[in-house]
Amino acid sequence: MGSVVLRTGQRMPLVGLGTWQAAPEEVERAVEAALEAGYRLFDTAFNYNNEEAIGNTLKRWIEAGKVEREDLFIVTKLPHIGNRASDVPKYLDKSLKRLQLSYIDLYLVHMPFGFIPDATGDVPAINADGSFVLDLKTDHNAVWKAMEEQVDAGKTKAIGISNFNISQMERLIVNSRIHPANLQVEMHAYLQQKELRIFCETNGIVVTAYSPLGSPGAKQHWQKKYNYSPENFPDLLGHPAVQQIADAHDRTPAQILLRHLVQQHIVVIPKSTSPERIKQNFKIFDFELTPEEMEILNNLDHGEQGRILDFGFFKGVENHPEYPFKGTKKDTHNAVNNVFSSEEKQVAKPLNALCVQNV
Ligand SMILES: NC(=O)c1ccc[n+]([C@@H]2O[C@H](COP(=O)([O-])OP(=O)(O)OC[C@H]3O[C@@H](n4cnc5c(N)ncnc54)[C@H](OP(=O)(O)O)[C@@H]3O)[C@@H](O)[C@H]2O)c1
């Protein structure tokens, strides 16, 4: 299995199990199947409401001596309703309790915008028109200081961010004592985020690609949970070029999409609750895509048009001053054109690896 080394010195596996939309009863079995298959990186979040189930399986494996805690890499996230300094220790403690762990390996600020929680403290408050109650005072520097204190307290080994844009990261880095070790963002063949990757490489931040398969389950999930249905929902797994490359290697389209990213030293966290697909998604280190195949996949980049998760399902989120995706379509296009020559735009580059093994 390949891995990258974070600025903290921790080794982070290049493939992990995603768990968004995985209900507790299914995720407990999925983590079991993933551990059997060799996964050691698990990605969850306070918001996914499945930390306890994940913790149950981890605990069973650790207590049975089947895995050492030090060999696991557990990621969880500060929720949007906890995006204020005083709430950071509170939500991290809740996650640790649910996961039944004394520390986690990487704690991420899940989203740059903040919501006000409802009376339960576990979900966002909603306005009469169905929009989310925004916390307009979100202060990244104050939140980050509290994140740094969690490292000092030994409750997490590393800290990072998710869904932040470049200018938000710039502000954070200038004011931080402990720099972010990891950025988790949407990334796949249709949204390759080259400018963001260069920024991360320059600043020693390892990138994790979420929704690496194009999140095929998300549309149904949003419809059911938020009555939200975006017009265009891409089908990456069904793209003829992906299928063709899969046939050439006798692999699945999912394996091709994942290999395309890990071959560029980007961490991937595909979600599955099917034992068969969990195994499949992990078997991507015994073949290599040719430069020509990488080029074909690189050329599937749609820039901002390829973004699936713009958080439109949180009604009104675009009115938050820290909503990250405003105007990025144009900016990204210009910046990519400036940074790459036309030849470079065609060629895959190992952008974010500080140190890589066995890719
Ligand atoms: N930081 C953030 O804001 C954020 C946002 C989104 C996601 N994430 C993280 O990233 C993880 C992955 O992203 P994602 O869940 O959005 O999407 P994804 O991993 O791109 O896609 C998951 C979907 O693909 C299906 N699938 C998995 N393997 C497959 C295969 N080999 N062939 C065909 N279909 C397959 C899964 O169904 P089955 O389960 O039925 O196999 C599921 O519906 C999440 O689970 C979460 O941990 C983070």
Show the helix and strand layout.
Elements: E1 3-5, E2 11-13, E3 16-18, H1 24-37, E4 41-43, H2 51-63, E5 73-78, H3 88-99, E6 104-109, H4 140-152, E7 156-162, H5 166-174, E8 182-186, H6 194-202, E9 206-210, H7 218-226, H8 240-249, H9 253-262, E10 267-268, H10 275-282, H11 291-298, H12 328-339, H13 342-346, E11 356-357
Parallel strand pairs: 3-4, 4-5, 5-6, 6-7, 7-8, 8-9, 9-10
Antiparallel strand pairs: 1-2, 1-11
Helix pairs in contact: 1-2, 1-10, 2-3, 8-9
Bound molecules: NADP nicotinamide-adenine-dinucleotide phosphate.
Outline the structure in words.
The protein is of the alpha/beta class and 359 residues long. It has one domain (3-120, 127-357): NADP-dependent oxidoreductase domain (TIM Barrel, Alpha-Beta Barrel). It is built from 13 helices and eleven strands. The protein has helices at residues 24-37, 51-63, 88-99, 140-152, 166-174, 194-202, 218-226, 240-249, 253-262, 275-282, 291-298, 328-339, 342-346; strands spanning 3-5, 11-13, 16-18, 41-43, 73-78, 104-109, 156-162, 182-186, 206-210, 267-268, 356-357. The strands form two sheets. It has an eight-stranded parallel β-sheet. It has a three-stranded antiparallel β-sheet with strand order 2-1-11, with no helix packed on it. Residues 18-20, 43, 110, 162-163, 184, 210-218, 237, 252, 254, 269-274, 277, 280-281, 309 line the site of NADP nicotinamide-adenine-dinucleotide phosphate.
